[in-house]
Write a structure and sequence with these properties.
The complex is a heterodimer of chains A (96) and B (379).
Chain A (H helix, E strand, L loop, with lengths): L1 H44 L4 H4 L11 E4 L3 E6 L3 E7 L5 E3 L1
Antiparallel strand pairs in A: 1-2, 2-3, 3-4
Chain B lengths: L2 H11 L38 H11 L11 E8 L2 E7 L9 E2 L3 H15 L26 H6 L16 H7 L6 H6 L15 H15 L2 H17 L5 E2 L13 E3 L1 H12 L3 E2 L2 E2 L5 H5 L16 E2 L17 E5 L3 E6 L4 E7 L6 H13 L10
Antiparallel strand pairs in B: 1-2, 1-11, 3-5, 4-5, 6-7, 8-9, 9-10, 10-11
Helix pairs in contact in B: 2-11, 3-7, 7-8
Classes of the chains: A alpha+beta (96), B alpha+beta (379).
Chain lengths: 96, 379
């Protein structure tokens, strides 16, 4: 009997874990998208420094890391999500 | 529907733009001797009758550093009275050349571009909204019109609210579906009977953006060229940046950039009833349509992609008790306020890291009230 409980518990944990991961991945994708788009436009359209732009990102996005490239910003939550916003003048930044 | 058919509907039905439901102030003309700021802004002192003490206090509070009891993070403040700039101030490291993001003030720019297309007869307010996905037989969304979209009374299940981090708007702007925002916003069902229920919706502005793109043609280059030719160049706007999604749809719900002086030009266009230096940019009656409340049981503060001032509400974008006033409003305290009875345009741009909407609303109301009603500017 205990064996069946263990198997059921394992599968339950697996399903819950998958749901939690999927939810977190969705939020991470949106967070990375927000940071990539906002920082790209701030740097390339408003022509501000990355250092001055970063404080405009809400603290709730603090776990999203960002890298500035020559024409883009890559934002990511490690092991979860990654987005790129690219500067395509004269059309501002486009989120991919 | 082809452009000729749209024109025919517009001509036979009339624009039906109407006038404000309330006895709102008339829109004042540009004072004689003050040029429209196409080539450059006239500058002057505030007119006689301005309460300078109140004005200085309000301005000082708007620029107080974080944590000092005011509304921090105002980065640009500009007041146009009688067609002249009478007050202009920037936070350190910002200036006249700085571009500021619109957030939802972009919705009002989208409304402006829509108005130009209506004036040209390429769109009609009460014709079925030209959205191909809605034209299948039996689809109730086929009855939706531009008027419904501009009023945000579509009844579509695409309201901004909900879980902030995972809301419809967040998915639309930043999620995977942001790559084709108009398609995402269009493929929703009705949640309410159309035309009866108001919901603030960035998705609806993206549907309008898709309509603008199809009407103009030529992808993002076509939309940009249209906006430059029909709006930016006539008004002397040189800082405008329209942003687009990966499918080349204008991000007309949230992403337009311009300098404070150019945001003021857009405000002045509406204050002057859609006319600019003798040229009609927006259709006759469009600005009154803009500042008339959308007819929905749960609305009192929203017109046609503009917020209406002076309607008591706890809503974040409805702070001002002005007669016939209306404004563009955006996240983090972006404002272009148009106050006809004071012949005023007030632009406030910046952030709101450590303040609240009631605080910012109160400071801006104090600033506006420092200007008297029905005056001109000092020579």
């Amino acid at each position: 009997m205990n064996r069946w409980y263990a198997i059921a518990g394992f599968w339950l944990l697996l399903v819950v874990g998958a749901l939690v991961y999927e939810h977190a991945r969705g939020l991470g994708t949106i967070g990375a998208g927000y940071v990539a788009k906002e920082l790209c436009s701030c740097v390339f359209v408003a022509e501000r420094s990355l250092q001055s732009c970063r404080p405009d990102i809400p603290p709730s996005m603090g776990r999203v890391e960002a890298e500035l490239g020559a024409d883009r910003v890559r934002a990511f939550v490690p092991y979860l999500a990654e987005r790129i916003a690219r500067h395509e003048p004269p059309f501002g930044c486009v989120l991919y | 529907m082809g452009s000729r058919a749209v024109l025919a509907v517009a001509l036979t039905a009339g624009l039906g733009l109407g006038s404000p439901a309330t006895a709102a102030s008339a829109l004042p003309p540009q004072p004689a001797g003050v040029a429209f700021p196409t080539l450059g802004w006239s500058e002057g002192q505030p007119a006689a009758g301005v309460d300078h003490g109140t004005l200085e206090t309000a301005v000082a509070k708007l620029f107080l550093p974080v944590g000092r009891g005011g509304v921090p993070d105002t980065r640009a403040l500009l007041v146009v009275q009688g067609g002249r700039i009478v007050l202009e101030r920037y936070a350190a490291s910002f200036g006249r050349a700085s571009r500021f993001r619109s957030w939802s003030m972009a919705k009002s720019v989208t409304q402006c571009l829509t108005g130009i297309l209506v004036r040209e007869g390429r769109l009609a307010l009460d014709a079925p909204a030209p959205v191909p996905e809605w034209q299948r037989p039996g689809d109730p969304r086929a009855q939706l019109t531009l008027r419904h979209l501009l009023h945000m009374t579509t009844g579509l299940d695409n309201a901004d609210g909900g879980d902030e981090g995972n809301s419809f708007a967040a998915q639309l702007l930043f999620g995977e579906r942001a790559k084709d925002s108009a398609a995402f916003a269009t493929r929703v069902d009705l949640a309410h009977e159309l035309g009866t229920h108001w919901d603030y919706s960035t998705g609806t502005s993206q549907i309008l953006s898709g309509i603008i793109g199809r009407s103009v043609g030529g992808g993002r280059e076509g939309v940009r060229a249209f906006a430059e030719r029909e709006l930016a160049q006539p008004l002397g706007i040189d800082s405008l940046v329209l942003e687009f999604d990966a499918a080349e749809t204008l991000m007309g719900g949230a992403y337009v950039w311009a300098s404070a002086r150019d945001w003021a030009r857009l405000g002045l266009l509406y204050l002057r009833d859609g006319r600019w230096d003798g040229r009609r940019v927006l259709p006759e009656g469009w600005v009154d349509f803009t500042r008339t409340p959308a007819p929905a049981v749960n609305n009192g503060t929203y017109g046609a992609h503009f917020w209406i001032s002076g309607t008591p509400s706890a809503d974040q974008f409805s702070p001002f008790d002005t007669d016939g006033g209306f404004h563009m409003g955006g996240n983090a305290g972006q404002f272009v306020v148009i106050v006809p009875d004071r012949d005023l345009v007030v632009v406030r741009l910046g952030e709101m890291h450590a303040s609240t909407w009631p605080e910012l609303n109160a400071q801006l109301a104090e600033l506006i009230e420092a200007f008297p009603a029905h005056t001109g500017t000092a020579p």
